[in-house]
């Protein structure tokens, strides 16, 4: 389109030059002689002044085009600024979502859990009984404070603590319940004859799989690592502490962690033993799964690179089109300016 306009303008300029060449030097003289000598000269000079002072129509159109061109350039510059801001915002939003993933929580229903490991640190206390029960039912106590038969799988492990290497610890690791559908639980009873401490309690620790201990080549090192990675809880004497466990699996960017969460309810033990036997303090603990749901927490990156790439391609295309349009517009303004100067110079030459 610009090429056609340039050729047309060039043709107009050539026509004007040809007309100027064909006019004889006495062209204006002949025109003056043809005027009526009786007509007053003041009227002729007044009409000439009006004709000289009135702007050409072509010059007015050129000014109007220049004005709209400047406005259009301003609009394109504004759109270019918006495109640059959109590109910056898109990149910033992508980096923000990539560096800060969101947390997705799902619950998976299972029929049974892998038997966890319940590590108990009785100290001077003795384990009197450990039995499996089902359907949240514990039969009444028979001869509390005395040894009874049990059906639990227990491993006795001795190791040095991870924080105090000179302190030797003894842990009774019990195979935990697994049948969550039938509400399997483990009921344990401990007895402590005497203690020098102000408060009496038994500490315990939970880890994911009891089979990890049995399959470990070095059980002492395994328990040392568990103690450094898992939390410790306690239950007090003279009460029955009912612990309901739940399993939480957290999947990060590079690793996966398993965490136990628990809810505990404490009930006072009504000691009906003779006064001579009450010197032995009793501890009762129950371990059970809370529900058949395993909580799975995953970190999800919500930033979609394809959407960001598509937006950036559109932005850069718009910037390229705007730059190309601005270049062509500037070139057109320069040509219009030169044409205006040539027309003005021609008019001055004609007047002279």
Number of DSSP E strands: 12
Q: Tell me, briefly, the overall form.
A: rod-shaped
Query: Strand pairing plus helix content: what structural class?
Result: alpha+beta
- The arrangement of helices and strands along the chain is HHHHEEEEEEEHHEEEEEH
Tell me the major beta sheet. Answer: 7 strands, mixed
Mean pLDDT over the full residue set: 77
Number of helices: 7
Query: CA-to-CA gap between the ends?
Result: 36 Å
Helix content: 40-55%
Residues in β-strands, percent = 25-35%
Radius of gyration: 49 Å
| Low-pLDDT windows of residues | 1-55
Structural account:
This protein has 352 residues and is of the alpha+beta class. 42% of the residues lie in helices and 28% in strands. The chain is built from seven helices and twelve strands. Strands 1, 3, 6, 9, 10, 11 and 12 form a seven-stranded mixed beta sheet that branches. It has a five-stranded antiparallel beta sheet with strand order 4-5-2-7-8. A hairpin with a 4-residue loop joins strand 9 (239-251) and strand 10. Helix 4 packs antiparallel against helix 7 (305-351). The longest helix has 47 residues, at 305-351. The radius of gyration is 49 Å and the shape is rod-shaped. Residues 1-55 have low confidence and may be disordered.
In short:
The protein contains 7 helices and 12 strands.
Task: Name a few traits of the molecule.
352 residues; alpha+beta; 7-stranded mixed β-sheet; 5-stranded antiparallel β-sheet; 7 helices; 42% helix; 28% strand
Spell out the blueprint of helices and strands.
Blueprint: H1 2-22, H2 27-33, H3 41-53, H4 57-99, E1 102-109, E2 117-121, E3 126-133, E4 154-160, E5 168-175, E6 185-192, E7 201-207, H5 210-214, H6 219-229, E8 232-236, E9 239-251, E10 256-268, E11 281-289, E12 293-300, H7 305-351
Parallel strand pairs: 9-11, 9-12
Antiparallel strand pairs: 1-12, 2-5, 2-7, 3-6, 4-5, 6-11, 7-8, 9-10
């Amino acid at each position: 389109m610009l090429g056609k306009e340039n050729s047309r303008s060039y043709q107009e300029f050539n026509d004007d030059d040809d007309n100027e060449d064909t006019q004889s030097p006495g062209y204006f003289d002949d025109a003056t002689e043809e005027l009526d000598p009786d007509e007053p000269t003041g009227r002729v000079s007044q009409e000439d002044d009006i004709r000289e002072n009135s702007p050409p129509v072509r010059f007015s159109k050129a000014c109007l085009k220049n004005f709209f061109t400047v406005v259009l350039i301003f609009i394109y510059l504004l759109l270019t600024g918006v495109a640059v801001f959109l590109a910056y915002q898109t990149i910033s939003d992508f980096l923000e979502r990539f560096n800060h993933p969101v947390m997705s929580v799902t619950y998976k229903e299972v029929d049974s859990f892998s038997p966890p490991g319940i590590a108990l640190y009785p100290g001077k206390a003795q384990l009197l009984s450990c039995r499996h029960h089902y359907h949240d039912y514990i039969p009444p106590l028979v001869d509390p404070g005395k040894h009874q038969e049990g059906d639990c799988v227990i491993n006795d492990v001795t190791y040095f603590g991870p924080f105090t290497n000179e302190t030797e610890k003894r842990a009774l690791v019990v195979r935990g319940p697994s049948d969550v559908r039938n509400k399997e639980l483990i009921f344990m009873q401990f007895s402590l004859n005497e203690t020098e401490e102000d408060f009496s309690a038994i500490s315990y620790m939970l880890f994911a799989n009891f089979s990890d201990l049995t399959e470990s080549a070095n059980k002492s090192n395994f328990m040392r690592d568990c103690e450094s990675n898992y939390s410790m809880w306690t239950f007090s004497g003279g009460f029955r502490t009912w612990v309901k466990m739940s399993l939480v699996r957290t999947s990060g960017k590079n690793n996966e962690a398993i965490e136990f969460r628990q809810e505990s309810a404490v009930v006072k033990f009504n000691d009906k033993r003779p006064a001579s036997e009450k010197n032995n303090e009793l501890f009762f603990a129950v371990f059970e799964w809370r529900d058949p749901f395993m909580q799975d927490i995953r970190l999800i990156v919500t930033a979609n690179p394809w959407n960001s790439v598509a937006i950036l391609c559109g932005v850069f295309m718009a910037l390229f089109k705007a730059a190309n349009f601005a270049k062509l517009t500037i070139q057109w303004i320069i040509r219009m300016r030169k044409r205006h100067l040539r027309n003005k110079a021609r008019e001055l030459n004609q007047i002279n």
